[in-house]
Write a structure and sequence with these properties.
Blueprint: H1 2-16, E1 22-30, E2 33-40, E3 45-51, E4 56-63, E5 69-77, E6 80-84, H2 96-107
Antiparallel strand pairs: 1-2, 2-3, 3-4, 4-5, 5-6
GO molecular function: structural constituent of chitin-based larval cuticle
Pfam families: Chitin_bind_4
Organism: Drosophila mauritiana (Fruit fly)
Length: 112
Amino acid sequence: MFKILLVCALAALVAANANVEVKELVNDVQADGFVSKLVLDDGSASSATGDIHGNIDGVFEWISPEGVHVRVSYKADENGYQPQSDLLPTPPPIPAAILKAIAYIEANPSKN
């Protein structure tokens, strides 16, 4: 399923800019996994490897309209989809009052 989504996303990327040329395309599917790679001449690229258990490691990258190089690496396995990037949002820190309340609850468990 993930491979189908990846191929569709890459096709949409190519269709969005009809002047982009493919520099490298690899789609190697074996009984024990796959290797997929797409490199476009506008700086966009995607690569992924997968094994027989459905585990996938990959990366995709592009240049944003603002000129920023965006790179997202990911792992998809029994723990779900796990993207990593400097540009992904992160949650704000937990407020001190909440940390204090959690510590109090842990130190004073309910008697029920």
